[in-house]
Amino acid sequence: MGPARTRAWVSPGQGSGVGPMPATGSGPAAVETAITSSMVSISDPGLTSAAPAVEPPREPALLLGASWCGWTQRQVDELDGMPNVEVVMCDKTEDARCEHATAYPTWVVDGEAHPGFVPRADLPALIGA
C-alpha cells in the first residue's frame, strides 16, 4: 500500500481541516468527485462580484475666445486656479475646434457648446471642477 493520501476540506460551520481521502475509486473521476464534494459555496449579501463603476476621466473643458474680446479676457481672469480647462484663442490659431464658437467666449463641454461668459461661481457646475 502506498503513502496515505490527504485532502483539505471546509464544511459549513465546521471550519477547515485535513483528513484521509476515501479509499473508493481512483483516477481523474474519483479526484474530481472528491474535490467537488468538498467544495462549499460562500455567499455574503455584502459582497458583490462586480467592481464598482468608475467614471472615465473627463476631457478638459474647452474655452474658445479671442484675444481682442473683453469678455474672453474677463473669463480667462475668472479661471485663475481652475483645473481641467484648456483655453484656445481662435484669432491666434487655425484650430478646427474654433468652429464651435458662435460668440466669444464659448465653452465646449462634453462636445456641447455653451456660448457666453460664465461667472466663477457657476463654473464648477458647467465644467465639473
What report would you give on this structure?
This protein has helices at residues 28-37, 70-78, 123-127; strands spanning 6-11, 15-20, 61-65, 85-89, 106-109, 112-115. It has 129 residues and is of the alpha+beta class. The protein folds into two domains: 6-37, no CATH class; 61-127, Glutaredoxin (3-Layer(aba) Sandwich), CATH 3.40.30.10. A four-stranded mixed sheet has the order 4-3-5-6, covered by helices on one side. The radius of gyration is 33 Å and the shape is elongated.
CATH fold annotation of the largest domain: Glutaredoxin
Enumerate how many helices there are, as a single number: 3
Residues in helix, %: 10-25%
Q: Determine the structural class based on helices, strands and strand pairing.
A: alpha+beta
What's the name of the CATH homologous superfamily of the largest domain? Glutaredoxin
CATH class of the largest domain equals Alpha Beta
What ranges have pLDDT less than 50 throughout 5 or more consecutive residues?
Answer: none
Residue fraction in strands: 15-25%
Shape: elongated
N-to-C CA distance: 73 Å
Mean pLDDT comes to 75
Rg from Cα: 33 Å
Order of helices and strands: EEHEHEEEH
Count of distinct strands: 6
Report the biggest beta sheet as strand number plus sense, adding barrel if it closes: 4 strands, mixed
